[in-house]
UniProtKB/TrEMBL annotation:
Organism: Gossypium lobatum
InterPro entries given in the database record: AB_hydrolase_fold, FSH-like_dom, Rhodanese-like_dom, Rhodanese-like_dom_sf, Rhodanese_C, TrhO, TRHO_N
PANTHER family (alphabetical): THIOSULFATE SULFURTRANSFERASE/RHODANESE-LIKE DOMAIN-CONTAINING PROTEIN 2, THIOSULFATE SULFURTRANSFERASE_RHODANESE-LIKE DOMAIN-CONTAINING PROTEIN 2
Protein name, per record: Rhodanese domain-containing protein
Rhodanese domain: residues covered: 150-250
SUPFAM superfamilies per the UniProt record, alphabetical: alpha/beta-Hydrolases, Rhodanese/Cell cycle control phosphatase
Amino acid sequence: MSKDEYGVLLYYKFASIPDLNSLFSFYHSNCNSLGLLGRVRLSPNGVNVTVGGLLSALEKHIEAVKSNSLFQGTDFKLASSHHPLNDKVAVECGFTSLSIRVVKELVTFSSYPLLNPPEVSNAGRHLSAAEFHSVLQSAGQLMKNGSPTDDKHLVLLDARNLYETRIGKFHAPSVETLDPGIRQYSDLPSWIDDNSQLLRGKHVLMYCTGGIRCEMASAYIRSKGAGFENVFQLYGGIQRYLEQFPDGGFFRGKNFVFDHRISVGSSDTSIMGACLICGSSYDNYSSRCRCTHCRILVLVCDSCQIKSDAYVCELCQKHRMDFGSIPSVEDGELATVLDKNDLKIVCSDSKISSQLPLRNGNAAPRKLRILCLHGFRQNASSFKGRSASLAKKLKSIAELVFIDAPHELAFIYQSCTEAKNSCAPPSGQHAPPPENCKRKYAWLVASDFGGKVEADWKIANQPFDPLQYQGQSGGFDVSLAYLKKMFSEQGPFDGILGFSQGAAMAALLCAQGDKLKGEIDLRFVILCSGFALPLADFGQKPINCPSLHIFGSDPGKDRQITSHTSRYLASRFEDGSSVIIEHEFGHIIPTRSPYMDNIKDFLRRFL
């Protein structure tokens, strides 16, 4: 390899990182000085790096990393490649810029809080490419030092996503191969739980692209105890195997990679993949065609791409997604015009229709039902209008149900001449509000709130205080009783989406734990611009409920709820049960990509 060639470097290391800020500074300085582009992910438990640049620069980077004792024993996978073009493949793979982030997990193993979270120190034994090949070759013959023996059945387990396995996988005669067929890595724990009988008492040989996914997955299998001890993983993944066996060995097809190369093959040019539409041999993902429903990559040949731009992957076909509802544009920012019929808060038949069993084999499965709680001094109608884009983009997987909070508020206006409230009545009058002023409600109110006043208008007793939400801590019991009634009459609901004060109310419900079991059962919550209130009901114990937290990342962009306030609320949920989406906007729910994709990814885990 010429040092003037372009190359790609992949490596990961699980280790306790004592100073993340220092490590972040190192990567920022080193990668920028060497002109490296790609992804660097740092966590308290290690690093995961995929970067590209001149081979000479990559070699200098490796030497700099090796000087840190934390990286002793790291497997640096360096390969030459073509220079990334400035096209959608390079952009999507992150090879047109340098992205360094601090994350909770190097790879998101599960969106649910696991009863037995895996410890990477308990991962399966590493097998070199030569050892892995030898095991498959002998398929049951005794190997030394605790390797698979002939008195146990041997199974191959592919830890990758469906779209990866469709263009290449291991195939060995007389060895059973298990392909979980998952959309994303975080679906693997559920597959393991549901198919543990296929692994119990077996010698399990796992493999993935570069090895990192097998570390967590093998540890999870071994954590199940007796009968699951014999788990082995291909060290360095498929990449190291193909370097050792350039003719492909027992690997057929191509190895999907998460950089601009897209895939890497062996000297065997046979094609394993097939076009989703016509079935012809095809294994090129460069067009980045995606399923209209779940957005995973699909293989569509050039001829079929000309005929259509709407595709349904085999997983969505298997679960009988509604083919007739495929839009031609999924993630565009489309303007939405609502008529009066669109603004009905809860359709009288919504509960019945969503709960009916499927009678038509081609019908779509039941969507998730999500109860939406608006913010302070809002109402269901206005929240539904502001969330129209969100509802439109979730319509294939979720039904959003909007309700008014129980505490009705009086209209207020400023007495100063600068007040620009178009709904304020003339000075000295308390006329009924004009038709364009809708009733306003709240989930939580000030401790001295006495209910709705007789007059429709009242003058504000002080200028607007951006921290007023901290004093609105009364009325929880009334709202709780009201929501219990809503769940009984309008439910069941899979989860709650709360905005601002609605998010604070939803968090208080989650903090109740088993106290509400049977009355308000939640599978998840989505908390947008949320905050925590210092109420006794909130308690000190971490909240155990899958949660998605959405808030602005930049201080000052959200003038109502600061980013550190929402971040604190997220910290009140158990580690491993919360997902955070930070955006660069203000007091809104973002519906652009990639935020919308992340919201959908979270919700699909509950379908």
